[in-house]
Amino acid sequence: MAWVSSREFAIKKSLTLRNLQKKINGSKKFLLLDTYFFMYYYTQGIGRGGRVLRIWDEPFSSEEEAQSFYEREVLGGALEMGGRNEYHLSGSANNGGLLSGGGGSAGGSVGAGLGGGGSAGGSALLSGGSALLGVEGIKPSVYDRSYLLALEKQRVVQEWNRAKKEKMRAKDFIYALNAKGEYSFELSENKLFAWLRAYKQGGVEALRDTRGKNRNGENKIKELECEELVVSLIKASKGGVNLNSMHRALHILLHREGKFDFEVFNSRRGEAVSYSVLRRFVQEWLRKHPMSKKLIEKGSDSVVSSFAPAVGEARRGITLNEIVEIDGSSLDLIIDAREYAEMLGVSVEGEWQKRFTLIQLIDTYSKVRSFFICESENKLGVARAIAKYISKFGKPKIIRGDNGRAFVSQDVQACLENLGIEYERTPAYSGWCKPFVEKSFGTLQNHLMEWMKGYIGHSVSQRQAIEFFFDRKERRLKRGHKTHLENLHLLSELNVILDDYVEAVLLNSYDEALGVSPREAFESKRNEARAIHEYELSAKLLPAMKRSVGKEGVSVGGYKWVHPKMFEHSSIYITQNINNLYQSFVFDLEMNFLGEAVIKDGNDPLVAEMAQSAKREHQKRLRAIKKGVEASRKEVEEGFLEGVRKIKEGATRIEPPKLKPLNSVMEREVKLKEASEGGELEKYTLSKNLQKSKKDYSWEACVLNKA
């Protein structure tokens, strides 16, 4: 949508210039063409070129709509109108000015209003147009600040044209004009020559600064009273605001409410609200409502993370190991797990890609932390993570964690009870209740995992971008592969790298809240840390089992365990070593350590994970066998019935024996049925008739007939 010349308009509407001029002359205020109204006006040509016809190339569906546009764009813009109301707002300046030292006017009829020996610039022009009230036919509302500033620019251009004729240099002209201080701006060469070009192309109207005229105050959205509609579209956006889609949806909804014809928008003949106006409104609304913006783009978890009130001190521990937070998170890393498969007794050819889980414990006082990598967030992994922290930093008094299945399992709770540690449960999906461990996970994932082989990204979009590094042909995954990443770290390598990074970087990083590094904070309270012996720790990681002592000892895991002191008790507690299930420790009912129990069979170490994996593999094989058996049963049953049906179709049937007729009536019916089926009905009837018509010549018949 724009103002075009009469020639451009005639070509666009397939008219001749003569016919267009006739229609213009025959119209009073608006050009009526094919039941549509078009806006036009005359502007002053360059030099003595006379007036130039300008036409708005988009039609208006009604005269009221055209009138509204006329009042807003034409009268509000102080343009020269053709027709009944014609204003002449431009003219040539008088011969006074900068060179003569006298005060000049803006020129023409406007100059008379500015009057008098004074300057047309400065405060007189910027006083809101009060000096122009005496001009006949001019409304005060026509003159806004941008137009008054354009008149100042026009005067500068005209004075420069006169100065150029006197062969005055541009630098001298600019210096003299700025020295007088008559204008509300400071002139520069760039401004001067830019104004010259603009004035030459479009006159005083081209000198107006129209930037931001729709950004403040009223705009199309407010005029149509559809602010609530646009806000509803913003709030209904999913995953972000799509302005192109919203622009179209807005016009569809405006069409539903009867405020705009969608066909006009769809055919690109007009629009109720421009894309730029909508974009500015949406950006301004999102800027004023950051929480809604975050909710639309990132979701509720991000809103909680960014806007939840951070009141008070999150550091709850007042001494070392008083409160330790625990949590688990999946690594943003793919690992080559061949070593892990060999440990579990699983045969793997080539590379076995697997994503492991990271379990972390962090002290809320000193912020010392430890990480443990495990296959998944299971009870054995949690127990080993607790053991790793205790072996490095001592036994915590309270462990705070969420209600994850592994953390609240009976085995983990029994382990904590054996160790004398209290477990404090936080509400579900409330990461802010354990901020230290959540923050530490983010630090590790962002600062370490991003720079390692096998990194897969923190989000779906990042993972897609990493995977799409390969073309479509290369994106066909091999059997057993989760990604196209190669040369992945082994599990043992990752454990070493992780421990080295935590020890060298994280524990020695300066912490603003502490004022020192975590290592220094731990060293200052080292004497308060309580260590646990390795054997005691290994014995208490798995739950203690109560057993009755028999003449052959106690039975655990299919083995008979014996110890001399256990026979002094009727019942004892026995626990297995998590690192060697062939090693067990015996306690009395008051959990006093009695000693290490032994079995007669081998002493090869049996890791708990290995036993668990063997059990899983057995269950997996059993399920596969059962699945095959069920499939075979179903196939055989269906095939058997189908075979029986086919055999039945081809088999010879046994006919039942025929029944003898009980009386003459039944005999007649049987014969009629046979005759009708075999075509013998006529023969049977004929034979009966012949029997009736045949004469009997025997002597008995003769005697009877005579009698």
TrEMBL record:
Q: Give the top-rank taxon of the lineage listed in the UniProt record for this protein.
A: Bacteria
Q: In the record, what terms sit under GO molecular function?
A: nucleic acid binding
As recorded in UniProt, coiled-coil segments are: none
Q: Which Pfam families match?
A: rve (PF00665)
| Gene3D superfamilies recorded | Ribonuclease H-like superfamily/Ribonuclease H
PROSITE patterns in the record: INTEGRASE
Please list the GO biological process terms of this entry: DNA integration
Q: Where is the signal peptide?
A: none
Residue stretches making up the Integrase catalytic domain: 305-526
Q: What name does the UniProt record give this protein?
A: Integrase catalytic domain-containing protein
